[in-house]
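Notebook B, p. 112. Complex prediction, attempt 2.
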Amino acid sequence: MATIYDVARRAEVSPATVSRVVNGHANVDPTLAERVRRAMRELEYRPNAVARNLRRSRTTLWAVIISDIGNPFFTSLVRGVEDVAQRAGFSVVLCNTDEDPTKESQYLDAALTEQMAGVIISPSGRANHVNRLVDARVPVVVIDRQVSGAHVDTVLVDNEHGASLATTHLIESGYERIACITGPEGVFTAMRRLRGYRRALEDHDREYDPDLVRHGDFRSDGGYRAMASLLALRPRPDAIFAGNNLMTVGAVECLVDSRIEVPAEMGVVGFDDVPWAHLVRPSLTTVAQPTYELGREAAQLLTQRIATPDRPPTVITLETKLQIRDSSLPRSQP
Amino acid sequence: MATIYDVARRAEVSPATVSRVVNGHANVDPTLAERVRRAMRELEYRPNAVARNLRRSRTTLWAVIISDIGNPFFTSLVRGVEDVAQRAGFSVVLCNTDEDPTKESQYLDAALTEQMAGVIISPSGRANHVNRLVDARVPVVVIDRQVSGAHVDTVLVDNEHGASLATTHLIESGYERIACITGPEGVFTAMRRLRGYRRALEDHDREYDPDLVRHGDFRSDGGYRAMASLLALRPRPDAIFAGNNLMTVGAVECLVDSRIEVPAEMGVVGFDDVPWAHLVRPSLTTVAQPTYELGREAAQLLTQRIATPDRPPTVITLETKLQIRDSSLPRSQP
DNA sequence: CTGAAAGCGCTAACAA
DNA sequence: TTGTTAGCGCTTTCAG
């Protein structure tokens, strides 16, 4: 690999001049600049970002740390991040933790030791992970899940409100025994969505019954198992609110396998849109999240945090929207 | 951020000794080592990977460059890569090109300038991109799509054979006018799958009719549009072979919207499994690819390439398997 | 077994 | 406008 010295020698200038041409910083005599550019071309010179990063003590890479690369929620979000990052001159790399705190910790280490310019993270676990970044003064934005006790920019959706909308919709459509499949205990979004479900019930003078609640793993399998367990109840629930997209899919798979008709025998509303929802019969009522915008907002916060590290942290909450489709058609009266 | 000098001073040793403790390279007196470790803890010392990388002129990051992060094919593949990488002490970062050569080029630049330890790429475009890596002696493995004229490790599936199996299956199930939706012109997998389709037809003394072929974009929308265009034909096709998972989804969506019964009015076979295939009615016959293994094999080749840069390139071809489900049920005789 | 010192490739004062 | 030079933080000879 040619270095900046090789180029300098060939162009008969100093390394500093080459650096100036490469970075377009200072004014360089056009003749020299041209000579430098030619030398670069001839030597196929490519700046060594590692050396540059060391010298400048900053990099141009953002890490986006997410918990499930297989969930379209995150892939859409990542696109939002990418589009903003690119315009601001950063490259985005993705790190997939599979909801595993060990993996998350490893990627945090990588982000720290590699001196990444910034991190956008949907934290799987406790606050201390995020605080490691904050303490090390790495610009960081938390996305999707609030971290209590971390003083950090955050982008959320109105989980509780969305869940409440969904549940209210089921109530008003005439469903009587509405169950809930929420996410893992201790995960922020899972707790908020459960709270919204509960609030809606209580607002309509329904009893909140913990027996009708299951905790899944935010993946399809968990939704399937939770649904199966709910189906064993007597009396059986006649509707369910599922706390994320993949668990909705799993729950519906279970209903299909059990030959239970949706919505005739079981109303279904899910949180977050299901990919290829059109293909699923019947079409699914969901609480739609602005996933792409979530990514955009996070990326914008991150650029601002990088520009002004000492600004006070912001929390942005985006709105969800209830998309009524066929899986929650009004209950025909007996 | 504490540096190695800070630690050395506190532990009253030389930076070299700290380095030895950190890397466990040479033998260090246990007393000193303990002093160093304590100093590290007290200062929350974290080695600066940028400086280390510069000094060692190698890094510990792999880039996986893929064309569509929204396609489960790639997400499963990435998991295969991650599992191997982690064991070998590398971190994996993902780069999404959205099939855009400009983005691809940018990520290649990033991989080069950041001196990444290795690259696994599913190239969207021409050979020259990959050759930039090979020429720069960056360890690289090409995955999913062969690059003609690049002397490089490659992991593929038997696209032609799989496509031929799928088409033969439709023929033997009694379908008469079998159309094909393949991928973008010039994309390796698209060409091979089209060739398999054609070969199967000709092997069964059917005429290959270019009017029955459409080129989609490997995404759902493209599949939808291609299907719509095929439906305008008179006589209409009575079966289709779709060249990847998302286009299969799009094609089926189009059929649903057009109220065309599958398989009664249109047999469907897709290449690559569709996520949540259970939910799609009827269940879809597909050519299943070993996506996770694809990633594993690629990662293994990459570790070998890094260990022995001058070994001759290998091409590995994994087998696909026809998964027969309901969307291609034997045609009932008229 | 330990320390001194050179240098990875680049940038940014500072001087000329 | 250009060049000289001193590091960024780390590893790794080479002496001791």
